[in-house]
Amino acid sequence: GIAACIFDLDGVIVDTAVYHFKAWKRLANELGFNFTEAQNEKLKGVSRVRSLELILGWGGIEKSAEEQQELATRKNEWYVDMIHHMTPEEILPGAKELLDSLRAAGIKTALGSASKNAGVILDKVGILPLFDAVIDGNMVSASKPDPEVFLKGAEALGVAPAQCIVFEDAIAGVQAGKAGGMKVVGIGEQSVLGEADLVVGGLQEINIQTLTNLFNSK
Ligand code: G16
Ligand code: MG
């Protein structure tokens, strides 16, 4: 049966995209150009360093590697200030309930996030103890759609990838889970995440029975 569930963070457990947006927008404005919500959408699941490269490209600005390092650090300091004020009310609907029921059912849980701040966020919203393993951006070298982050999650839990279900809101993340040989639940629109084995609007639509049905399909 199902041995483990591995969760993406931003867009699945919490919505940190709003804080990333504010911090990137402040940086872009300081550099003299605008940054839109539509552009922010394209950064979901994308690493900090890669996000900055994309933003500088959109602004038509070139910076040395050293300057990019400084800019990424500056953005992260603003971002970290904001996430330190996060509260349990910011957990997305159904996430806490699902994590609780997985634990009660003896199904292991891991986080598989591109964020280097994942541990702080889980701690601030009060659900860090509900994860048996946390794999974050500090522990991976290849970004999604590479399956590394999810394979490391399975390894940390001591379970086979084929016995894992991944929850993802980004296309690259859905592809990463599939590339790792896992079942994938997409959180969002069917039209966008059609490569997933199942697409739902949010974790409130998921329970142990849905997961068992999914696991036993195909
Ligand atoms: C998250 C966000 C991305 C962000 C990345 C790195 O990914 O979706 O927008 O750029 O983490 O975050 P940090 O700057 O905190 O290392 P995920 O994988 O949790 O969806
Ligand atoms: Mg995400």
Number of helices: 10
Helix coverage percent: 40-55%
Main beta sheet: 6 strands, parallel
Which strand order spans the largest sheet, edge to edge or round the barrel?
3-2-1-4-5-6
User: Regarding quaternary structure, how should these chains be classified?
Assistant: single chain
Order of helices and strands: EHHHHHEHEHEHEHEH
Low-confidence stretches: none
Our estimate of the beta-strand percent is 5-15%
- The termini sit apart by 14 Å
Global outline:
globular
Unique bound compounds: 1,6-di-O-phosphono-alpha-D-glucopyranose, magnesium ion
Total number of beta strands: 6
- The average pLDDT is 97
Overview of the structural elements:
The chain has helices at residues 17-30, 37-41, 48-59, 65-83, 95-104, 118-124, 148-157, 171-179, 190-193, 208-216, and strands at residues 4-7, 108-112, 133-135, 164-168, 183-187, 198-200. With 218 residues, it is α/β, with parallel strands linked by helices. Helix 1 (17-30) crosses helix 4 (65-83) and helix 3 (48-59) packs across helix 4 (65-83). The longest helix is centred in the middle third of the chain and has 19 residues, at 65-83. The two termini are 14 Å apart. The protein binds 1,6-di-O-phosphono-alpha-D-glucopyranose and magnesium ion. Residues 8, 10-12, 44-45, 169-170, 173 line the site of magnesium ion. Substrate binds at residues 8-10, 24, 43-48, 51, 75, 113-117, 144. Pfam families: Hydrolase. GO terms for molecular function: beta-phosphoglucomutase activity; magnesium ion binding.
